[in-house]
Amino acid sequence: MKPRLIVGLGNPGRDYEDTRHNIGFMVVDALASQFGASWVSEKRWDCALAKFRGGWLLKPLTYMNLSGEAVSDVSRFYKIEPGEVLAVYDDVDLPLGSLRMRLKGSAAGHNGVRSLISHLGGEEFPRLKVGIAPEGGRPAGDRMVGHVLGRFTEGERPALAQVLGRASDAVRTALHSGVAAAMNIFNRKEQSNNETTEKP
After folding, report:
1. Are the beta carbons of 149 and 16 closer than 8 angstroms?
2. Phi, psi values for residue 105, rounded to 5°
3. How far apart are CA 158 and CA 194, in angstroms?
4. Sequence-ordered strand ranges (E) for 43-186
């Protein structure tokens, strides 16, 4: 199935701009730029929408834990099935620069995904997870919130630019050929890269 609604998860407002938790917003912003699509604020749904040929990009303007409200309202209005919603969001269990595309799955502790599951009626919608974990892996205890809501460092910027490009390519492939085809290319490509870097 090909997605028709691409949802970037994040928090609205300047305090959250460029934070790791907002990498979903960054991906759909990059796609809007590539598509020449303009964001329009939709107050009735509390979100920003950008129309492109074949679908919509969406940024909920609620806070993260209420993201599902806007997504379900827009989906109902445009008669978009949950399987046609592709959610893009940060994953603190994946290293920065990594991608994982899945057809379904649990929230795994992500409040935005938990809200989507609640409002879309289940876990069966595709998602693109973008890694934000530091070199040492998932931060423990009190360091978690500071890391997730912190801004990318200068040292992380090259990896950020690279993963935003790959994430945009993955979404464009899903739009053109379907999510399963994109999974075959981008999940495998990353495994192949990891295998290469692990060799002496």
Report:
1. yes
2. 160, 175
3. 18
4. 47-52, 55-60, 85-95, 99-102, 127-133
Tokens describing residue 119: 């409002």
CB count in 10 Å sphere of residue 161: 12
The residue behind tokens 């990353």 is 190
CB 31 within 8 A of CB 6: yes
Is 176 among the residues known to form the active site?
Answer: no
Element (H, E) at 168: helix 157-177
Question: Would you state the structure tokens that stand for residue 33, as one six-digit string?
Answer: 């730029």
DSSP strand pairing (127-133 vs 40-42): unpaired
Structure confidence by residue, pLDDT tens digits, 128-158: 999 999 888 888 888 899 999 999 999 999 9
Q: What's phi and psi for 48, nearest 5 deg?
A: -110, 135
Tokens of 126: 């595709």
Q: Report how far residue 131's alpha carbon sits from residue 51's, in angstroms, rounded to the nearest whole number.
A: 27
In this predicted structure, the answer to whether residue 197 has a pLDDT above a threshold of 50 is no
Quote the pTM value: 0.92
Counting every residue written for the chain, the total comes to 200
Of the candidates 21, 110, 147, 176, the residue annotated as catalytic is: 21
Angle CA 114–142–161, to nearest 5 = 65
Give the start-end residues of each E strand in 11-54: 40-42, 47-52
